[in-house]
Structure formats: C-alpha cells, structure tokens
C-alpha cells in the first residue's frame, strides 16, 4: 500500500528578477531559494519566464513588432544572450541551490536551444538536483515572435513526497486537451505560471483547481518600468534595445507586471488570496489529503469520465526536425 502524501509548505516568489541580466538574476534566484528554504518551504515556485524576465514590451512598446526593426533585433539578441540552455552554469547554480535548500524548485525561464528560445518550466528535484522541462505548447499572440513551440514530452507530473507535481504556463490553461492530459497525470499540486495573474487568469486557476481536484499554485510576476529599465541597463544593453524599451509609456514607478500570486484549494476556493502591486513571498501549508476528499464528488480522469465516448491520445515523444543516426 502506498504511503499517504506528506503535508507540505509551498512558497511563491513574487519578486522581480534583474531584468535581462542572467548572471545577476541567477544570483538573486539562489538568494530567494535559500530564503524560502529557511522558512521551511518544500516547494518554491517562480513565475513565467522569471529568468531572465517576461518580454512585456511586446504588449506595450509601440514598435516592438516592426519588420526588420534594428532596436527589436538588438533586444532579441540581448534576450538570447541572457537566456540559459539547460546545461549552462546558470541551471547548474539553480540545481545546487535547490539541493542546499532541500526544496523542489519550479523555475519559469526562457530556455535557449540552438537559435530558438522557449518558454519553459524547469522542475528541480532537491535530492540529486535532477530536472524535468516543460516547454509552452503554444506561445500566445505576440509571443510567437520570440518563442518556439513545445511538444508533448513535457506534459508530465513528477513524483514527490507530497503527491504528483505538474504545471502549465499561462494560456495553456485554456487548452482543454492540455488540461485533460494533465488531469490524467493525477496531479496533487499544479503550478500555474503567468506574467501576472489578472482577473481572468484567476478564473482559469480556480477552474483548474476544481476541475482537476488539485491544489493550484498560481505564480505571477511583478516588475515596475523603472526596475525593468535598470535591469536591462545593468546587462550592458546596446542603445537600440534601450531605445525600444524606453518607448514603453508610463512613469518608472508604474507596474508593468502586477503580481496576483495566490494559492487555491481543490474546492476552487482561495487558501491565500491574490497579492497585487507588492513584492513578497507567498507561503501556504497544504494537506494533500484534501484532494482525496474532493475526488469523492469529481474525478475527471476516473469515475466522472466517459472513456466509452471520449478519448484523447497524447504524443509524449520529444520532436526534432533533424536526427542523426550512427
């Protein structure tokens, strides 16, 4: 008989990175991981592409989408130079910090693979520093200018002492079949990463918690215009990249990302209400046994499913356009 899942403490890091400065952001991330670990956190969650920062200018800079625009190309170059590949020293440092803190770390990052960037979740196991990656299946709207598409190999839930831990990124929560695939993984704990958790994003998180009968750890980013510009300047950005970012309207103390991190129970109710317009560390103690109680009424991959009518096939193989066989 399997042992029941242990109670756990989760911590959501609602703090800005040093925007588009990879080395400084990794240093800050390791400090925050140790801080959360010092508060007894078993699972530490960062927002979408926290490392090295969500490309919010795609939504607010007037000329971000101009074809063959030198400032846009300069800024993309800066993103590439400050986005780590999985084997890079930045990821090694995060893995070491997770082991030292004795906590699972779930990092949102812009992952570099060859010449393409991906919006990825990096899960780190604190026992040996082993990792798993999920790449966002479908970048949303203007995000398609800077990120490639993921595949089904990352639609996984990891086995932890606290139950199955999985996650999705942003608008993946509005992909019904992606939700169905993750529900079939039997998540106890679900990480929902967002640039910031707006009202409709809260709706999606609460719906996911109820539909999936699981805890949802909703992680939203926070950064002001001034913090973003200061971070980019510290990375040695060229004048073109800075020119595009400085075209974003507003004062330096205006929030570009407003947070909204929250923790939601399997009944869809808040355990920790959303925190907006304030940096902080959101901490909650969770009892995985509440999931079993919720599944008395609803288990969408079990007694409340109709496999005789509906079926879903998921290709969980990693896909590459070129393979070499020796």
Question: Could you give the topology of this structure?
Answer:
Elements lengths: L7 E7 L7 H17 L4 E3 L11 H4 L9 H12 L7 H13 L2 E10 L2 E9 L6 E5 L22 E3 L2 E7 L6 H9 L4 E6 L4 H14 L2 E6 L1 E3 H10 L4 H8 L8 E10 L5 E7 L3 E7 L2 H6 L32
Parallel strand pairs: 1-2, 2-3, 7-8, 8-9
Antiparallel strand pairs: 1-13, 3-4, 4-5, 6-7, 9-11, 10-11, 11-12
CATH class: Alpha Beta
The count of DSSP E runs of length 2 or more, i.e. the number of strands, is 13
Distance between the termini: 45 Å
Helical element count? 9
Overall mean pLDDT stands at: 96
Integer tally of domains: 1
Derived from helix and strand composition plus strand pairing, the structural class reads alpha/beta
Oligomer: single chain
Q: Regions with pLDDT < 50 over 5+ consecutive residues?
A: none
Order of helices and strands: EHEHHHEEEEEHEHEEHHEEEH
User: How big a fraction of the residues is strand?
Assistant: 25-35%
Shape: globular
Largest sheet: 7 strands, mixed
Compute the gyration radius: what is it?
Answer: 19 Å
CATH topology grouping:
Nitrilase/N-carbamoyl-D-aminoacid amidohydrolase
Per CATH, which architecture? 4-Layer Sandwich
The helix content is 25-40%
Would you give an account of this structure?
- There is one protein chain.
- With 326 residues, the chain is of the alpha/beta class.
- It has one domain: Carbon-nitrogen hydrolase (Nitrilase/N-carbamoyl-D-aminoacid amidohydrolase, 4-Layer Sandwich), CATH 3.60.110.10.
- It contains nine helices and 13 strands.
- The chain has helices at residues 22-38, 57-60, 70-81, 89-101, 176-184, 199-212, 225-234, 239-246, 289-294; strands spanning 8-14, 43-45, 104-113, 116-124, 131-135, 158-160, 163-169, 189-194, 215-220, 222-224, 255-264, 270-276, 280-286.
- Strands 6, 7, 8, 9, 10, 11 and 12 form a seven-stranded mixed β-sheet that branches.
- Strand 8 (189-194), helix 6 and strand 9 (215-220) form a beta-alpha-beta unit.
- Helix 1 (22-38) packs parallel to helix 4 and helix 3 crosses helix 8 (239-246).
- The radius of gyration is 19 Å and the shape is globular.
- The termini are far apart.
- The relative contact order is 0.18.
